[in-house]
Amino acid sequence: MHPVAAILMVLAAPVALGHTAEELAAKNVEARGGIDKLHTIQSLRFSGKVLINGGTLALGYVTLLKRPQSVRYEAALQGLTLVQAYDGTQAWQINPFQGRKDPEKLSADDAKGMGEDAADFAGTLVDYKARGYTLDYLGTEDVDGTEAHKLRVTRPNGDVTYVYLDPDYFLEVRTVNRRIEHGVPHETVIDYGDYEKVDGVYFPFARESGPKGSTNRQRVQFDKAEANVTADDVVFHFPAARAGAAPAR
Known about the structure:
- It is built from four helices and 13 strands.
- With 249 residues, the chain is an alpha+beta fold.
- It has one domain: Lipoprotein localisation LolA/LolB/LppX (outer membrane lipoprotein receptor (LolB), chain A, Clam), CATH 2.50.20.
- It has a 13-stranded antiparallel β-sheet, covered by helices on one side.
- β1 (43-52) and β2 form a beta hairpin.
- The longest helix has 12 residues, at 21-32.
- It starts with a helix and ends in a 22-residue tail after the last strand.
């Protein structure tokens, strides 16, 4: 390679901008509240509402998370409650809105996505090395008028999450999850806002998500969060009978 070309490549590299992936991950962890505070949170319960169909329909919404990889979602409307859950091994749901009152198991791809979301509840960049993630800094990219730092997180299974950090506060403003489902790549965009402290750790209370390039987006607005709540493992397991698990609330 010509020496001039080599110099230009170095100057164009993201690390030349004064940041490395590791430094940005550390700044994000500190901005969230610090690694010690993050580690003390073993479970979380968020409650609020989810807006669908362009915000014309609002459902009561509860998310219950528990380390290391358990999650349960509940969306309620007019006496009916949709449940989706994952216990670290099996994903399942009860969807009365489709006329189904009995629990049904979900696919391995659904389980993988829910498991990754549950594992990342404290933040995708938290303990990324211990979880076997590979991190790369890709420079900055415009996110709704903000030149956000862009990080690529590659998981051991090959799935990729792009994390966008606010340049001033180093909190996540957007993630893009690229997952292979049924042999086809799917990308989901999630925008974050309304950060509030929960037991010393900042979590986003507002999120808007949908397939990349789609205008059909789902909005979630939480109004309450509780850390280290009692969360019996049974509420995440596939119910043995129709009566099954107790609700997360």
